[in-house]
UniProtKB/TrEMBL annotation:
Keywords: NADP. The keyword Oxidoreductase does not apply. Pfam families: LuxC (PF05893). GO terms for biological process: bioluminescence. This is Acyl-CoA reductase. InterPro entries: Ald_DH/histidinol_DH (IPR016161), CoA_reduct_LuxC (IPR008670). Signal peptide: none annotated. The keyword NADP applies. GO terms for molecular function: acyl-CoA dehydrogenase activity. Coiled coil: none annotated. Transmembrane segments: none annotated.
């Protein structure tokens, strides 16, 4: 199968997903194999929501919209042009996927197949409905993918390389278990925002998207703020306010109530507005419904701190503060070339041939 065949197949998949990525699901006339797959995928969306309470239709559709935007011929070509896309001998690449947000492992899945390899997928039990169905669609639009995609719930065996994502504890296990194979092992990371106090109202409203999207469960969600001394929290909370309906979601509300009770019983100092708590804490990983913060006095010292802690940080949100920063509101809209943990998975996959 040639590279252009693979690209064209994923472009068609993006076209198919475009029917489901808006608030109103709407069937289109010009989508290949739509009569066979449209109603079935609607059912998979329903199953995904029923199986995992964090996977609301809003968050699933947001994830799908991201892939619709990414899976265009122009984007795929721009992504792959810098590489020498020659796969001499296709290998079997195992992917162990996380399940914290919808289709979180899709970039790895796409990367393996677009480089000409075969993929062996072990999904998280939290996100097991969407990808297998989309795989069937992919095999219909490009029959040469048949036999190159396998899903398993058993122990992973007979593979040549692995991409695995998990917690810090499971990452240590992965590193030991897969030490004889070419691998990318990812562990817990969190995202931070550096504020100066000069942010506009629009900046802070956009920051709310970085905090609350997917209920804060993604590694690209901002869980920690760095603030100048004497920061005005009123501006921050005003920027957050339009997300207040999130407290109406039972799973989020339960976490909010529980964590608030823990803080109060422990007599921790914290500020809250009825749906979000902020607490001064040196950790990067904050509980659901909580954002940690630290004050800084010297911008250069903070830059050095962020460089030192690079292996704990996925994204840095700021405006003119640091190289490779991400704009407010953009953490959950990565491009194809925005690699998790800054590890180039395409380069890795092209070197295992």
């Amino acid at each position: 199968m040639q590279l252009q065949q693979r690209i064209y197949a994923f472009v068609k998949l993006g076209d198919f997903l475009s029917q489901f990525s808006n608030e109103v699901i709407q069937k289109k006339d010009n989508i290949e194999h739509n009569e066979l797959f449209f109603e079935g995928f609607k059912h998979q969306l329903k199953l995904a929501q029923e199986h995992n309470g964090w996977f609301t239709i809003e968050n699933i559709q947001f994830a799908l919209k991201g892939w619709v935007d990414a899976l265009t011929h122009d984007n795929l070509t721009k992504w792959l042009t810098p590489y020498n896309m020659v796969t001499n001998t296709p290998k079997q690449v195992a992917i162990i996927m996380a399940g914290n947000i919808p289709l979180v492992g899709f970039h790895d899945f796409l990367s393996v197949l677009i480089t000409g390899h075969k993929v062996l997928v072990k999904q998280s039990s939290n996100d097991k409905h969407l990808l297998p169905y989309l795989t069937k669609y992919l095999e219909f639009v490009e029959p040469d993918f048949k036999g190159k995609i396998t899903f398993t719930e058993a122990k992973i065996e007979k593979f040549d390389a692995v991409i695995a994502t998990g917690s810090n504890n499971t990452a240590r296990y992965f590193e030991y278990y897969f030490k004889g194979k070419p691998s990318i092992i990812r562990n817990n990371r969190n995202s931070v925002a550096v504020l100066t106090g000069k942010e506009t109202e629009a900046d802070l409203k956009n920051l709310a998207e970085d905090i609350f999207r997917y209920y804060g469960l993604g590694c690209r969600n901002v869980s920690k703020l760095f603030l100048p001394k004497n920061y005005n929290f009123d501006a921050f909370f005003n920027g957050m306010y339009h997300w207040h309906p999130i407290i109406d979601k039972a799973k989020y509300a339960n976490n909010y109530d529980y964590n608030k009770a823990v803080y109060l019983m422990s007599e921790f100092d914290m500020l809250e507005n009825g749906f979000l708590m902020i607490k001064e804490d040196q950790s990067y990983a904050s509980p659901i419904a909580t954002v940690f913060y630290e004050y800084y006095e010297d911008a250069n010292q903070l830059k050095e701190r962020l460089k030192t802690d690079n292996d704990q940080i996925q994204c840095i949100v700021s405006n003119g503060f640091i190289e490779k920063e991400i704009a407010f509101g953009a953490t959950q809209k990565p491009q194809l070339w925005d690699y998790a943990d800054s590890i180039d998975s395409i380069e890795f996959l092209l070197t295992i041939s």
